[in-house]
From TrEMBL:
Gene3D superfamilies: 1.20.1530.20, HUPs. This is Potassium transporter. The chain crosses the membrane at residues 37-53, 65-83, 103-120, 132-154, 166-188, 200-222, 234-255, 267-287, 293-313, 320-338, 350-378, 398-424. GO terms for biological process: proton transmembrane transport; sodium ion transport. Keywords: Antiport, Ion transport, Membrane, Sodium, Sodium transport, Transmembrane, Transmembrane helix, Transport. The keyword Cytoplasm does not apply. It comes from Bradyrhizobium forestalis. Belongs to the universal stress protein A family. Residues 607-734 form the UspA domain. InterPro entries: Cation/H_exchanger_TM, Na+/solute_symporter_sf, Rossmann-like_a/b/a_fold, Universal_stress_UspA, UspA. Its main location: membrane. It is a multi-pass membrane protein.
Length: 747
């Protein structure tokens, strides 16, 4: 085990020797900026930073600590002290060479803030509400006041410009008051406390801290740019920031979503969505620069808007995070470590001031967060856990300190002191938070909520991102649009309506607008916010199979089909549906409207029958049924055949004890206030029991979760086929994504 832990770091000495020799040779050849030397710097920072980051993660510390330590080891603190000639050869102080890697670091700052914004969960902030805001304000004010007071009493020798002490003091206050939401979220997630009440409050408070911090930094940057306290300039910066935020979170939110979807759906080049996101980040950073505040605010807000995009968030996160984590993070934090010369702490006065800084930062943040937690309604143990988590400064602190150093607000020594404080508080936070969280008991209400959320998280509806609705111009298409709107409106999902009919082109636009209006109206019945759902329409211009295949590549995870003719000959679907199913590999929902739904395709309420078994696909059907029931009713039927030896005993023990699926469905229905009735039928063929239930009750829609059966045509098995053909009411078949072997062929 020990050899495994040391393996990543064991490469560092060899890398140092080789790159030192190469860099020295390169430095001797040319006094100007060198591209090969830049590459060597990047290679060394990434190799050592990622190696130490791996080691830190294995001992329970954030990887960013390893990347910071890599810079400190490679900088004047250690390597420059042991072998100054080699260190200067690798990282020369010449302005031209330094500007090359600094440019990469500046891009890294923007990308780090973009990623931080993408990880900022505003829904979580809204959920915990006033408590997190009150705690955040108390947790910021106390350390800010301490940091500001410390800045006012710092010796002039530590300030780059003693005449601008006010700006330096404001910067110190901000640096001490902001927590690192990234570090906090990682530790809370590792402890499986992300969904616990106190875990949500900790992360939401860190999010608010981060957001307020970047706004303060933006204003201080404007103040520092003018050198003096110019009220008019600061007022313009504050007003510009408020207008920027207001526009971003209203018009900007919708614009960002539309651009991401447009790029995903229309551009064929590789990584088109990533390109659009980077352009959005750059434009918003430039806008904040033009209004007189720092570019990091624009990148941070861009990240929040991208993270809130209702489509493609998982794919975007994976691709972008890999680039930032593997390249820009070790380079940026490594350079921050290079800029921190810990050898200056040999001066007893500076060492004492650094210790005082760590104490003031910890006491101020810990005390402020603890008091805020108490005021916010937390008990002593919860407030202790909150205070422990909020004390980590981590990457946020280093970014703030780097900005302060770059604009001349902080001196080199003051920068070193702040980086040291960030490292100490960040390394102390994980064990403190783990110890505090481990002592927190779970009450019954919280336990029930977590069990319910865990059940829903594994569900089908909770993981949907993009439904595609394929329709023609029939009444069944209108009913399918209504059904899709109910499913999507539950979570505000965007819908794409694909017209696959054969009507003349001059009538297509009117038909599209009709379907779009139906979907929006259906969504409004389940969503208080009329803008929560977004609908676009498209027309299939090529062959049906090719059209569906093109759409499938755009990231749709549910295809709802509503056309005039669903069934053809016995045991066969219409050729159109066969063609659609053959080219779409994901979950498929086929809507077959019958009876009153063809006369009234937009009913006020649905009375649904859902047959269930213990299979995953039947649970999927039950989830969809609950989403559709709304103000209507839901009847769940479980059919126990003669092969089910526990059926008779199940009747005596009660339905909820016999089958977990009935209980799960009942719990899910109760979560959404859906009226539910459960029924058990014994010793009957499933199709006969279902059809009899239809005939003897007032249901008007059957929702069935079905498996695709491997065959030369689309098939869902005999039960689904019998219900589809013999039912007098509408049927919705919700299939799995992959075809299964027929039951007779199963092992």
């Amino acid at each position: 085990m020990r050899s495994r832990l040391l393996r990543p770091v064991g490469l560092v000495p060899a890398a140092l020797v080789l790159t030192t020799i190469a860099a020295g040779a390169e430095a001797g050849k040319s006094a100007g900026p060198s591209e090969s030397l830049l590459i060597l710097q990047i290679v060394l920072l990434i190799a050592v930073g990622r190696g130490l980051g791996e080691l830190m993660q294995r001992i329970g510390q954030p990887s960013v600590i390893g990347e910071l330590l890599a810079g400190i080891i490679l900088g004047p603190s250690l390597f420059g002290w042991v072998w100054p000639e080699a260190q200067h050869a690798i990282f020369p102080k010449t302005p031209e060479q330094k500007a090359m890697i600094d440019g990469i670091a500046q891009v890294g700052i923007l990308l780090l803030l973009l990623l931080t914004g993408m990880e900022t969960d505003l829904k979580l902030v809204r959920k915990v509400g006033k408590a997190a805001i009150a705690i955040s304000i108390a947790g910021i004010l106390a350390p800010f006041a301490c940091g500001f007071a410390l800045g006012e009493f710092l010796p002039d020798a530590l300030l780059p410009d003693p005449q601008a002490r006010l700006v330096a003091s404001l910067f110190m206050g901000t640096a001490l008051s902001i927590s690192s939401v990234k570090i906090v979220a990682v530790v809370v997630r590792e402890m499986n406390f992300m969904r616990r009440n106190v875990g949500q409050i900790i992360v939401a408070t860190a999010v608010i801290d981060d957001t307020i911090g970047w706004i303060i930094i933006a204003v201080i940057f404007s103040l520092a740019s003018h050198g003096t306290l110019d009220i008019a300039s600061v007022a313009r910066a504050v007003l510009g920031t408020l207008v920027f935020l207001a526009v971003s979170f209203t018009i900007g939110r919708r614009l960002v979503f539309q651009l991401i979807r447009w790029a995903n759906d229309n551009l064929v080049s590789a990584a088109a969505v990533i390109t659009v996101i980077l352009l959005l980040m750059s434009v918003m950073a430039l806008i904040t620069h033009l209004i007189g505040v720092h570019t990091v605010l624009g990148a941070f807000v861009a990240g929040i808007l991208v993270g809130e995009s209702p489509i493609l968030t998982r794919q975007i996160d994976e691709r972008l995070r890999g680039l930032i984590s593997s390249f820009f993070m070790p380079v940026f934090f490594g350079l921050a470590g290079l800029s921190a010369d810990l050898s200056v702490l040999r001066d007893p006065n500076l060492l004492m001031l650094t210790g005082l800084l760590v104490v003031i930062a910890s006491v101020g943040k810990f005390g402020g967060a603890f008091v805020g937690g108490t005021v916010g309604g937390l008990n002593a143990r919860e407030s202790l856990a909150l205070a422990s988590g909020m004390n980590a400064r981590g990457s946020t602190e280093v970014i703030i300190a780097t900005i302060g150093l770059s604009i001349g607000v902080l001196s080199q020594n003051l920068f070193t002191m702040i980086v040291t404080m960030a490292i100490v508080t960040t390394m102390a936070m994980p064990p403190m938070l783990r110890a505090a969280l481990a002592r927190l008991p779970m009450n019954e209400e919280e336990k029930e909520r977590l069990e319910r959320e865990e059940f829903e998280k594994r569900g089908f509806i909770a993981n949907l991102e993009r439904p595609l609705l394929a329709v023609d111009e029939s009444p069944n298409a209108t009913f399918a649009a209504h059904v899709t709107g109910l499913i999507a409106g539950m979570r505000g999902l965007p819908i794409t309506v694909l017209h696959i009919g054969e009507r003349p082109k001059e009538q297509e636009k009117d038909r599209h607008e009709s379907h779009e209006a139906v979907v929006k109206k259906a969504a409004e019945t389940v969503s208080a916010n009329r803008d929560a759902i977004d609908v676009v329409t498209r027309t299939g211009r090529a062959e049906l199979g090719e059209t569906i295949a093109d759409e499938a590549r755009k990231g749709f995870d549910l295809l709802v089909v509503g056309i005039a003719k669903a069934a053809a000959a016995k045991d066969r679907f219409d050729r159109k549906i066969d063609d659609i199913a053959a080219t779409f590999e994901g979950p498929l929902a086929i809507v077959v409207g019958k009876g009153k739904h063809l006369k009234q395709p937009m009913p006020d309420a649905l009375n649904i029958l859902v047959p269930v078994s213990g299979s995953a696909v039947s649970k999927r059907g039950a989830e969809v049924a609950v989403a559709l029931a709304g103000s209507g009713s839901l009847r769940v039927i479980y059919v126990a055949t003669t092969r089910d030896k526990g059926a008779q005993r199940g009747v005596s023990r009660g339905l909820s004890q016999e089958t977990g699926i009935l209980k799960d469905t009942s719990d899910l229905a109760a979560r959404y206030d859906v009226d539910i009735t459960t029924t058990l039928r014994v010793n009957r063929a499933p199709e006969a029991a279902i059809l009899r239930e239809i005939d003897t009750t007032d249901v008007d829609l059957v929702v069935m979760g079905v498996d695709r059966i491997q065959a030369d045509h689309l098939s869902f098995g005999g039960v689904a086929d019998a219900v589809l053909r013999q039912s007098k009411v509408s049927v919705l078949l919700v299939s799995s994504g992959e075809a299964q072997r027929p039951p007779a062929e199963k092992a």
